[in-house]
Amino acid sequence: MKAIRRFTVRPVLPDPLRPLSDLARNLRWSWHAPTGDLFQSVDPECWAACGHDPVRLLGSVGPERLTELAGDRAFLGRLDAAADDLHTYMTGDRWYQTQSGTRPQSDQLPAAIAYFSPEFGITAALPQYSGGLGILAGDHLKAASDLGVPLIGVGLLYRHGYFRQTLSRDGWQQEHYPVLDPNELPLVQLKEPDSAPTLVSLALPGGRSLRARIWLAQVGRVPLLLLDSDVEENDLRERGVTDRLYGGGSEHRLLQEMLLGIGGVRAVRAYCRLTGHAAPEVFHTNEGHAGFLGLERIAELGSDGLEFAAALEAVRAGTVFTTHTPVPAGIDRFDRDLVARHFGPDAELPGIDVDRVIGLGRETYPGGEPGLFNMAVMGLRLAQRANGVSLLHGSVSREMFAGLWPGFDPEEVPITSVTNGVHAPTWVAPEVLRLGARQIGAERAEEALTVGGSDRWDSVADIPDEDIWELRRSLRTLLVMEVRERLRASWRQRGAGTAELGWIDRVLDPDVLTIGFARRVPSYKRLTLMLQDRDRLMNLLLHPERPVQIVVAGKAHPADEGGKRLIQELVRFADDPRVRHRIVFLPDYGMAMAQKLYPGCDIWLNNPLRPLEACGTSGMKAALNGCLNLSVLDGWWDEWFQPDFGWAVPTADGAGTDPDRRDAIEAAALYDLLEQRITPRFYERGESGLPDRWLEMVRHTLSLLGPKVLAGRMVREYVERLYAPAAGGHRAMDPDAARDLARWKTRVRAAWHGVTVDHVETSEAMGTAELGTTLGLRVRVGLGDLGPDDVEVQAVSGRVDEEDRIADAAPVPLKPVGAADLEGRWVYEGPLSLDRTGPFGYTVRILPSHRLLAQGTELGLVAVPSEDALGAAGLLMR
């Protein structure tokens, strides 16, 4: 029989055990080992059966066991200690508070930051993520909590989360969408003082409404607000808006993103009203999905009497935009008519002209499609500060979006980089944590993993080789046991009987070099590159003296038939009885599996098509557990690779190399590395009987790479380089300043056609010069209807290539001399220092200048000399 109604019955805990409820509702248990250990001791078997979810655990433990624990003095002592530790963690000063106290009043850190993301990977018990973007967002929140950064997270609550993956008998991916009941998750509903649920509402065309309630997940010190449209007040279609992560057609996705951005701002306002939390001074958009938040904030200011142009400037000043995609195809783009239908007088934000909304997302640059609305373009136009997620990705992003800043070289496009990091307490195995705590003490170990700092990691050098090698073998053993368990479950789901599965007990070997490869399965990540030469791969797997074993996992998007075929191809190879004890594919890759997989591998393999990996953080998580990286020089590995940390797979990315040939070349290089350099080093033994050279690389990975890959380092960079300047910009942009800046931009854009560089000359005319020489520059410019206060005239110099393009350009401002002449021309002068040898060149340019601009490139306006203006300026020093 099927129930006609479902509800959740919560346990009544005995009074001495009441703190367990508070501990369960704060997701810090997902990365704080002592709290996790406490819940495990409640009932170890039930803890495992509940998927390490304290909320489910407390709802499943029988009253007899609870009564027993309520009288257990040892358990109650541990419970009190955990509750006191959480209270101290939640209320005490942390890194952020110490930084705030050292700054002058005019440069105070933001009182709060709102962080918007379409997905968050906090714990397997809250499955609201699909891959790297969500895991990164979860790690961002956790690191912010550990550092005391006053973040408010904002996302959506998907009733089906992302799909669960199984395999058919022939290896084809199957998707399943279990229904999630928020009442059974570590969430509480945000409510009004009269206990009524707090709702946000969006207006839809035709007089309809989209309403959503707000669920709160407490991520340490950070509140995470999740909007849920499955409420009785909605019609059936609107109830399904938050059904699945990245599901549905264009309108479905548009409504999700409107709810995330517009509804998310309204949820933040409600949360601050109800709790007294400080209002955010900075809004951070993690990818373009939440870009509509800027429109809602413009509408808020408009209701206070600020016109659109001024409100836009006020919003931009306090907004940070992070792009994660290295390819245009990865950006959400909507038909402009669809967007227009959902805004304006008959729908949402009626106070904003629809043409202004559409203008924010229009692809106005060469090659753009004017009929499409681009969410990343809107995100960039609504944010004064933007960044990519690795140095290489920042460069790729500047190239990709250069059309929004015409007249500037890509390297001057105002998109910086903050390289991603990972939350070490989440991803470092307990066994690794215990070894670190034994070496330097538990408190210092925790600080090393959260705040970072190389001095705290140097002590790795003092850990004996025997201890590191024993740790690595024990982690490999745990992985072998985990793989066998998961593989047996997978084969049962594929229809195999018990009698067919005896071979699984011999799968993998704790003493064999273990390679891990786990990630989403789009084509550019090249899941099957390892299968290019199957004979060579088989020889590696079955080598009599130096074998390797490979653990593979990953999900293809449900609509990606090509990705599913790649999975099937690899699964069929792994099913071969000759090699199935050496290579396995594990379905349903997620956080729970990843936390076992990273520590147990010796090598982490990553072979995307360069430069299509924006960052790729799985190798960072592996590295924190002493795993070495074997990767194409892409994402973070391009930035931090050293031979001490692993190996770089050479890339064949020449313009004339077709994709098949490129795959063949790079696969051959991968096999060569494994055969000639990696496996010999792993199996080679020194005088101590240990793989000395291998252990030296493990030690360097932990001590030198470890501090770099931390999410704590990443969040500190966001605070110092983006959040603090954005907060300063927000405070400076009061209504009068916003109006002044908007009027100034309008005036400058209208008058820019009259800005010219008319003549450039130097104090000396020659083809060579001595290093250290200083030349005098004299420039005559026309400013039209503008004045010297509106512009900056710059000399830009540096080394030049064979086509006279300036590399590593260094701008130096020139100063006006006297007043304008009778023709309205101005003279600017300044020194030009020849501070480097070799081919050297310079040019002169004029940029708009205003105290409230974050950078001179912001407007995309520049004036440079014409051929007639060069005079004696065509100077090259060699």
UniProtKB/TrEMBL annotation:
Q: Which residues form the DUF3417 domain?
A: 13-126
Show the catalytic activity.
[(1->4)-alpha-D-glucosyl](n) + phosphate = [(1->4)-alpha-D-glucosyl](n-1) + alpha-D-glucose 1-phosphate
- Enzyme class label: transferase
Per the UniProt entry, the Enzyme Commission number(s) are 2.4.1.1
Residue ranges of coiled coil: none
Name the domain of life this protein comes from: Bacteria
Keyword Translocase listed: no
InterPro entries, per the entry: Agluc_phsphrylas, Glyco_trans_35, Glycogen/Maltodextrin_Phosph, Glycogen_phosphorylase_DUF3417, Pyridoxal_P_attach_site
- SUPFAM superfamilies, per this entry? UDP-Glycosyltransferase/glycogen phosphorylase (SSF53756)
Kindly list the cofactors needed: pyridoxal 5'-phosphate
The alphabetized UniProt keywords are: Allosteric enzyme, Carbohydrate metabolism, Glycosyltransferase, Pyridoxal phosphate, Transferase
Q: What does this protein do?
A: Phosphorylase is an important allosteric enzyme in carbohydrate metabolism. Enzymes from different sources differ in their regulatory mechanisms and in their natural substrates. However, all known phosphorylases share catalytic and structural properties.
Please name the NCBIfam families in this protein's record. Answer: more_P_ylases
Family membership, please give it.
Belongs to the glycogen phosphorylase family.
What is the protein name for this chain?
A: glycogen phosphorylase
- Native organism: Streptomyces chlorus
